[in-house]
Amino acid sequence: MTQEPPAIPYPLAPAPTIYHPSPDYTRMRETCPVARVELPDGACAYLATRHADVRRVFTDQRFSRAAAAGPNRPTRELG
Questions:
Q1: Cα separations (Å) of 68 from 17, 34, 38?
Q2: Contacts from 63-72 at CB under 8 Å and sequence distance 24+?
Q3: Residue 79, C-beta contacts closer than 8 angstroms, at least 6 positions apart
Q4: Higher pLDDT, 79 or 39
Q5: Cys-Cys with 10: which of 27, 37, 63, 67 at CB 3.0–4.6 Å?
């Protein structure tokens, strides 16, 4: 059984300039493009860091609001 890496604290470290992303974001994009992050309230989420992955999530109907309200929706509350 493969163990999932620990969640990365979010929000990430600030970017050094407005023209360069955070070093944490750059590292995630290169090594783990869909990373598990821990939000300030302790909840976990997944952060897509590459354009192709973000586009796939935004265009996939399984991630739509309609799917979240449908009969096969998750039954566990978020947060």
A1: 37, 20, 22
A2: none
A3: 41, 43
A4: 39
A5: 37
